[in-house]
Amino acid sequence: MRQADLARQAGISASYLNLIEHNRRRIGGKLLNDIARALDVEPAALSEGAAVDLIATLRDTAEASRASEPEVDRVEEFAGRFPGWARLIDTQARRIEALERSVEALSDRLTHDPFLQTSLHEVLSKVTAIRSTAAILTEAAGIDPEWQARFHRNLHEDSRSLAESSRALVAYLDTTADVDRTRLAPHEEVEAWLDDLGWRLPDGASADDMLSENAFGSRAGRLLAQHWLGRFATDAAAMPHELYAEARAASPDPAALARRFGVDVAAVLRRWALVPDETSSGLVICDGSGTMTLRKAIDGFPMPRFGAACPLWPLYRALAGPGVPIRSVVEHPGRRPQRFLTFASAAASRPAGFDGPVVHEATLLILPDPPPDAPAEPIGTSCRICPREACVARREPSILLDVL
Fold first, then answer.
1. Do 151 and 80 lie in a common domain?
2. CATH number at residue 284
3. Residue 279 · residue 248 · CB < 8 Å
4. What is the pTM (predicted TM-score) of this model?
5. What is the extent of the structural domain holding 326?
6. Taking the CA of residue 10 as centre, how many other CA atoms within 13 Å lie in the half-sphere pointing to its CB?
7. Were 365 and a residue from 95, 146, 284, 343 both cysteine, which residue would form a disulfide, CB within 3.0 to 4.6 Å?
8. How is the beta sheet containing 359-367 ordered, strand by strand?
9. Looking at residues 100-129, what average pLDDT do you find?
10. Does the residue 137 lie in any domain?
């Protein structure tokens, strides 16, 4: 349809319609209905314009681009006039984001995965042994037949061992496409088991009842699950579900809830993460060394599987001041930066008595939908995969700086 024909049917000038098409005039009421009737579409299709998520993705992609300077102020016009190209860019941007997450996870794994490191070391050792044996057989002349038979036997055994190690390594890599679900350590077994339960533990159920139907890959994993179930059961006994949910609805302040139930703030944060709710939440617990001992993931807040996390996390700041709760809004970098409201608290204890060593533990609760106007503190996942170049806490250059 020609622009002039549409303008005539709608009862306006072609120049005014041109302004509308380029998002320079807002319309509504009778004019909106007239244009919709002339185009034979629903008025909502014109009033809503291009999808909000699509435009948001285009804006984020433009802001993340360093190689070009796209016209961000015309993104709505682009999405409206070329919806096919806009959706293609959106698809590509999401694909790139997914690949970046895979690179982050694989880099973390290649750097710290103990099984992978051990397997590669074994393969290299076997290759070196085979090369040495082959060199002796090739270069040495007049080898005694008995020694020659020994070298041949060693060559055969090392080759067979290399084939088995290589096959096991390939099988390990092939079966762990979903890096986050591969269980290597006891605490990962527990986290995967809790993920399968949706982190929803029925009140009143004993640890033995819950673990009797589950098979852990290691005795250590089962013992660790018993430990956490015992702590969660203690929290549930001190803060019954109905009373806790009612108190939290009245005052969503962890410190106030801790006073209300006579527990420490960390217990409230653990209970918050495990009480069924309409919103998701994340939970991280670490010991005094900063090692994460429990992780409940939340979308948009990546957690390193191996190695240290970002030192700017409120979790580690809480370790510097045990007993002082911290409330902060944080922002993860990326093509679509994610903001979260966090509560952190650390505590010191002496489980071995007054003269025993002091044991520290910090807890971090992560909630979506922070206050929109609250200033956010920039954080990352770990320095190795964080794109923030000017971070004052950076320990090493990021492998992503040349990519993003």
1. no
2. 3.30.450
3. no
4. 0.61
5. 279-404
6. 29
7. 343
8. 292-296, 282-287, 359-367, 338-349, 326-332, 377-378
9. 73
10. yes
